[in-house]
Amino acid sequence: MKSKSGKRIGIFGFGCVGQGLHDVLQENPHLEVAKICVKDREKLRTLPTDAFTYDPQELLQDTSIDLFAELISDPKEALLIVRQALEAGKTIVSANKKMISENLPELVALQEEFCGTLLYEAAVCGSIPILRTLEAYYGTEPLQEVSGILNGSSNYILTKLDAEGLSYEQALAEAQALGFAEADPTLDVGGYDALHKISLIAAHAFGALVKPEQVLRAGIQHISKKDINLAQVLGGRFRLVASAKINAHNRLELQVLPTLVFPDSELYYVEAEFNGVALHAKYAGSQFLKGRGAGSHPTGSAVWADVSAALAGYKYSYAKLPKEEEPVQLKIEGEDELQVYLRTPRPELLPQLPWLQLTSFGVDSRNAQLVGTILRKDLLAHLPALKQTAAFIAQLPSYISANQAVNASCQVLEELV
Ligand SMILES: NC(=O)c1ccc[n+]([C@@H]2O[C@H](COP(=O)([O-])OP(=O)(O)OC[C@H]3O[C@@H](n4cnc5c(N)ncnc54)[C@H](OP(=O)(O)O)[C@@H]3O)[C@@H](O)[C@H]2O)c1
Predict the structure, then answer these.
(1) Ligand 1 center to residue 390 CA distance, Å?
(2) pLDDT digits over 90-137, tens only?
(3) Per UniProt, which keywords does this protein have (predicted)?
């Protein structure tokens, strides 16, 4: 179809997001789709064969194409595509959070050197315009914290465990059947996907280039009914919360941790596959954005918004990233204290940790629960050993005492008997 603007787009990928973008473009024919590059020659398609190519170069070297959308599921190939487009000074939008977060310094440098453009709103929270908000509105205002539920699959599972009493396995199977979780859910339930997203948020919100090992990360894969019931007795819910926060010493604290949230937090009300992001700015105060964090049309809509903005000449300013003449980076903090709840079915494997305070309870040969306070850097250092114990690890707000957790645990036991 001839477009109203006379502009042509080349699309890489025709899966969940690629098809979502294609649907949106069919209903809003401002752009002509040149071709769609896919991988599997045997797959049945909803479009005629001549709509597709299997050779990325057929798109990348077509000088009649004005911009590209990279929406494939292979991060290595996605990097090659984005790199080649930027080296040619082209405009490309992408949804690949893993690829972008792991290569951000290079991708920023390529844009500077060759004057190309890369936009990636769809990579963070699907339809929620968080990067554009950070760039366009908070480019100059200091932010104190950006935190939220950034992964729809794990939130769907946690919601089902809490609201319907499903087991983790049942909730995961349901999320997979509905297309909210991948066949291999590790990236989602292990907190890696949220880590990629909070890293991108940290770059735009605080100018920090984050290495994955600097982020305290634990997932939800070892949560049990015991943990869910404990949260309910305490009046809260576990949510997988990613946060980037400036502390009292002007250092950045980064984490992706299951966190006990209460009705006084907006995050308590983010349910199923939805995402929610809370922003706390120095002058503007607090704001909260909630919306669909994944899915074909919501993510396709975010890609379309980037495509339209890029055609109008929009680029990220990366206003908070340190410039070459001022290479001082925001330091990432490990000295702050965290209160954590931990339950492990392998108490015999628990490593010795430098707890500042520790209360153990529910200990028998098959189980141990504890509430402890520890320095972030110590938890970060011992996390690999803790993960060997198949522990569920979560942050507890400081206003919940260890005694309250012990009492709640006793109540859970009485209810289960
Ligand atoms: N799904 C979501 O809701 C969502 C939300 C935000 C961001 N994202 C991101 O968006 C991207 C796409 O996700 P998706 O869910 O749309 O994936 P998907 O449904 O699995 O589709 C992936 C597409 O990529 C194509 N592809 C894979 N490797 C390729 C290669 N080497 N060369 C050319 N094409 C290749 C596949 O080709 P075939 O069709 O031939 O198999 C398929 O069309 C990922 O980076 C994902 O993280 C997804």
Answers:
(1) 31
(2) 999 999 999 999 999 999 999 999 999 999 999 999 999 999 999 989
(3) Amino-acid biosynthesis, Methionine biosynthesis, NADP, Oxidoreductase, Threonine biosynthesis
Q: Whose CA is nearest to atom 10 of ligand 1?
A: 95
Q: Any alpha helices (H) in 72-191, and if so which ranges? A: 75-87, 97-102, 104-114, 130-132, 152-164, 168-177, 186-189
Residues 207 and 354 in one domain: yes
Ligand 1 cavity residues, CB under 6 Å: 12-18, 37-40, 43, 71-74, 77, 95-97, 122-123, 126, 294-295, 299
pLDDT at 348 over 80: yes
Average pLDDT across the chain, whole number? 93
- 161 and 90: one domain? no
Q: Are 290 and 386 within one domain?
A: yes
Tell me: pLDDT of 3 over 70: no
Nearest to 240 by CA among 205, 199, 270, 213: 270
Q: What pLDDT is recorded for position 108?
A: 97
CA distances from residue 11 to 17, 27, 124, 281, 327 in whole angstroms, order as listed: 11, 17, 19, 37, 37
Which pLDDT does position 151 carry in this prediction?
Answer: 96
CATH (domain of 61): 3.40.50.720
**Structural domain contains residue 344:** yes
Confirm whether 312 is domain-assigned: no
Residue that is last in its domain, among 119, 144, 159:
119
The CATH number of residue 170's host domain is 3.30.360.10
Please indicate, yes or no, whether residues 213 and 358 belong to a single structural domain of this protein: yes
In Å, how far are 57, 76, 146, 270, 392 from 198, measured between CA atoms?
A: 32, 21, 9, 17, 21
Report pLDDT for 327.
47
Q: Torsion over CA of 379, 381, 386 and 387, rounded to 10 degrees?
A: 110
For residue range 203-248, list pLDDT tens digits in order: 999 999 998 888 999 999 999 999 999 999 999 999 999 999 998 8
Based on the domain organization, do 181 and 75 belong to the same domain?
Answer: no
The number of distinct structural domains making up the chain is 2
